[in-house]
Amino acid sequence: RQSDHKKIFTMRAAAAALLPLLSRGFQLSPTSPLARVARSSSKLSMTIIDKPYGEWESPITSKAMTAGSVGLGGVHYCNGDIYWLEGRPQEAGRNVLCKYAPESADKSERNGVDVSPKESNVRTRVHEYGGGAIVFGKNEDEIYYSEFATQRLCHLLKDGTSRPITEEGDTYRFADGVVSDDGEVIYAIREDHTNPEPKNVVNEVVSINVKDGSMKVLATGNDFYSNPRVNGNQLAYITWNHPNMPWDATELRVLTLDSTSNKSSEHELIAGSDGDTSIIQPLFHPETGDLFYISDESGYYNIYRKGSDESILPMKEYDFGGASPGWQFGQQAYTFLNDGRLAAQYSKNGKSVLVVANVSDSSKVASDVVEFGSKDGLPMMFGGVHPGEGDDLYFLGGSPSTASSIYKWNLQSKGEASILACSSELSFDDDLISVPKLVEFPTTLGTAFGYYYAPKNGKYTCTTESAPPLLVKAHGGPTSCTGTSFNAGKQYWTSRGFAILDVDYGGSTGYGRDYRRRLRKSWGVVDIDDVCAGAEYLVKEGLADGDRLCIDGGSAGGYTTLGALAFRDVFKAGTSLYGIGDLTALAGDTHKFESRYLDGLVGQYPEEEDLYKERSPIESVDTLSCPILLLQGVEDKVVPPNQAEMMYNALLKKGIPTCLKLYEGEQHGFRKAENIQDAIDSELAFYGKVFGMDIPEAVELKVDNI
Length: 706
Prior knowledge:
Blueprint: E1 8-9, H1 12-23, H2 33-38, H3 41-44, E2 48-50, H4 62-67, E3 71-78, E4 81-88, E5 94-100, E6 112-114, E7 134-136, E8 143-146, E9 153-156, E10 162-164, E11 172-179, E12 185-192, E13 202-209, E14 215-219, E15 224-231, E16 234-240, E17 251-256, E18 268-271, E19 279-284, E20 291-295, E21 302-305, E22 334-336, E23 342-348, E24 351-358, E25 367-372, E26 381-387, E27 392-399, E28 402-410, E29 418-422, E30 437-443, E31 446-453, E32 460-461, E33 470-474, H5 488-494, E34 499-504, H6 513-516, H7 526-540, E35 549-554, H8 556-567, E36 573-577, H9 583-588, H10 597-601, H11 609-614, E37 628-633, H12 642-654, E38 658-663, H13 673-691
Parallel strand pairs: 2-32, 33-34, 33-35, 35-36, 36-37, 37-38
Antiparallel strand pairs: 1-2, 3-4, 4-5, 5-6, 7-8, 8-9, 9-10, 11-12, 12-13, 13-14, 15-16, 16-17, 17-18, 19-20, 20-21, 22-23, 23-24, 24-25, 26-27, 27-28, 28-29, 30-31, 31-34
Helix pairs in contact: 7-8
């Protein structure tokens, strides 16, 4: 293979054949391939460069990815205004509350104006993963948020400033709040770090007086709480205890606000009495007062009404919990419209479906059930639906070619959903965008799933190699899933000639409870089997080069990456982003929320310490034989940096090519633009060195032992 080998292909021959026909008045369909050939002289003379896979130049650069991009979330409609939360890499990852104001002279590229004070960071650290950092009341006078630096709950004032309402100090953290009907009280989750050792951190449901900040504990005694929701004198909440996670086993309980007892064991138990059912996302109906919730008792996350053991909707073999239920606060996969109807979202064959149904009567099941999808103008993927005025709906969505955006869609008139704000200023031609294809492949426990992205760049082809290098991606969690909305981080690779397989390995969400529970006691086995099986399947299908298989993943995906490299002989290189190398160290050195997570994924510790060591990549460096890049945040409390340092030192001693990059000021996941850029550029340069690729404008990267 010669890296500078190029062949020029032209389309002039096709044009020459067309000219006699066109001169005689021959008409071409405007959408036909021939019409596209004839549309412009510039396209007729377009050249396609023949160059090895992985060495293509691409305008989708790391700087382009972050320069005009933000994270969008927390979409909310309040008293005529649309609000959302922006995570800004260019501002060190600061989270900002914004309001849709397309007529404002101060509007951003996303047609929004900042609402939270300048320099404020709207983010809570409850469970470390946060979510639910904003509390909305009935109008703009009742907006509250958690300030990241102090973790105090603050009242947002009309003049753009804020007033802290909770006491000074870093003892308390707050999340997932709701405002009382009279606007005088916030009901929220409080996490007490008076004694910061994970085993001594206390989580409770509290009421907070918005005037003086005084607090009252309403529910206590269990390890965890979430989703406090109020209706009149009733307050519903979700609670669970170690070693369960919220997707394992939880309870839905209800207390009366005038109760003399704050002990959860004395509050009414609505669902979850069997100790093996996950109950999530309770919500009171605004008209009837009926309590609804999501349960996986049927084998899938279905929606139920209190007092009925039958799912309210007929789509019983689909999950309504959302993409990653339980990881963050504030998640709500269904809502109630202005006329009282239920609106819920689920995923089918890689596409989102909106379900609207009448649940206002006393029937066990919903009536007048209607589904809406892309044929009705909705984007390919969406979630977090919020009703606006009349039949207007607002939500976050996207597609393989459209970055995550805030949409408006009318349930009555339908039509194409309009984009109000887009997370990225990036705009690329279709010939640069690789559209994912859902693939199913055989694995040890039956079938696993993933999304295959073929290399795509209209300026390049490759005739000198039979198949492209493959980058397998293992998502974090591990109880989570991947998505198919536009992701510049994936198109970065495919536009350079890499193929991608984004794997939803056994244990992923969205495929029912049995699939999600495949990882019970089997983390480090099932997930590794599946990422390896997916790669081997694509090689067999001729879609990937078996000699250039690489894998990456963050957090739990980093563990799967390291495990695949240590325990299998499939991949030739890999990159771990804040991944886990030592399970025993993680078991004794992580935050409260996940401190017993491994009990269900691996086994009890220290009783089953031998199993932990057996599945720890750090304990199997003797079997490692391929290069590994380690990328880690210095301030990570979920996966402490000593994990990456231990792995790096072990690789150094063995003489395996490796590189460790530590990023100052980063926690679990990279938020700063410069670090996001450096991480992906370093990974590309790393594979370039490993596979001998001539990477255009590769960053300097020092790799030890190479």
